[in-house]
Amino acid sequence: MVQWKLPENLEDFLPVQAKKLESYRRQLLDLYEKLGYEFIIPSLLEYEDSLNAHGKDLNLDTFKVVDQMSGRMMGVSSDLTTQVSRIDAYLSEGKGENKLCYAGPIIRTKAGIGQSRELYQVGLEYFGNPKVEADTEIVNTLIKSLKLLNIKDIIIDINHLAVYRSIINEIDLDVNQKDLLAEAVTLKDKTQINHILQSIKDKKTINNLTNLVDLYGDKNVFKLIKEQFANDKELKKCFDDVQKIVDVVEKEGAKVNFDFSDIRGYQYHTGIMFAAYASGFKSALAQGGRYDNLNSSLGSMRPATGFSMDLKYIVNHQ
């Protein structure tokens, strides 16, 4: 990381790195164009109102500045997905399908593991299709993208938020408690989970939640979770969708893993979630999933799914 006289967790990309990143960007965008995704360039700034509509996590990740023209608070882009969703609402007026891709810099208030606070985010979003076939297309394209970048030994980590939501829907919690619980589950902190739920009398539901923390690993984990919720008809449909994702991943020669307590982004994700890993990389290479009705607070009800990756992270760790 080249950080000469820069703030913490920011960096310059010198000629060798910059050339490699630009080559990757071009290859990926060419691939997405062939697959029918149209390229867009979202604005670097947006008003804080739209940031707040997408959950606390996004708001906390975003640097704020005052618009000298209007006096309103603005945010510097920290996740292009939400902006692409806003653009889709404008382009489609809530009708038909829309496939969009993007590539550009974003900046966040905090750095992820092994990452800069300044990312170069590339990704694509598929709007208007609520069926699992849209999700399988997205996962298939993700694996093709990573192979294009010469990444080997790809592992796709899969989760379906319906499992977690089916459990917490049985518990009477306020918004703050739900946020704290989600954080504890993501960190697999059983002590904190039990502390938050200490006043809850439904011990079966609590056990289901604490057991969720241990449900990560290979396809045996998927088998266990299906057995645990065998009587839940709604979850059966979700598990069928997950199996279709598994089939695509295995067909593409990647490995499958499951983590039903990995609920990062649960505030706007609604269904299947996934992350890509590979040997030599300590953190996820890409993340994505379904986020239907992300703009519901703005009056746009749209099914959507997609993924994004940070090319800076990939270039720095190859």
How is this structure best summarized?
Helix content is 42%, strand content 20%.
Can you give a write-up of this model?
It is built from 12 helices and 12 strands. It is of the alpha+beta class and 318 residues long. The protein has a domain at 1-152 and 300-318: 2-Layer Sandwich (BirA Bifunctional Protein, domain 2). It has a 9-stranded mixed sheet with strand order 1-5-6-12-11-10-7-9-8, sandwiched between helices. A 3-stranded antiparallel sheet has the order 2-4-3. β10 (272-278) and β11 (286-290) form a beta hairpin. α5 (132-148) packs parallel to α11. The two termini are 13 Å apart. The relative contact order is 0.17. The model has no long low-confidence stretch (mean pLDDT 87).
Please tell me the overall pLDDT.
Answer: 87
CATH level-4 homologous superfamily of the domain at 1-152 and 300-318: Bira Bifunctional Protein, Domain 2
Which CATH class of the domain at 1-152 and 300-318 applies here? Answer: Alpha Beta
Any guess at the CATH architecture of the domain at 1-152 and 300-318? 2-Layer Sandwich
Note the run of SSEs as H and E: HEEHHEEHEEHEHHHHEHHEEEEH
Strand percentage lies at: 15-25%
Number of distinct beta strands: 12
Structural class: alpha+beta
CATH topology of the domain at 1-152 and 300-318: BirA Bifunctional Protein, domain 2
How would a textbook summarize the main sheet?
9 strands, mixed
Ends distance: 13 Å
Stretches with pLDDT under 50, minimum 5 residues: none
What would you call the quaternary organization? single chain
Lateral strand order in the biggest sheet: 1-5-6-12-11-10-7-9-8
Gyration radius over CA: 20 Å
Helix content: 40-55%
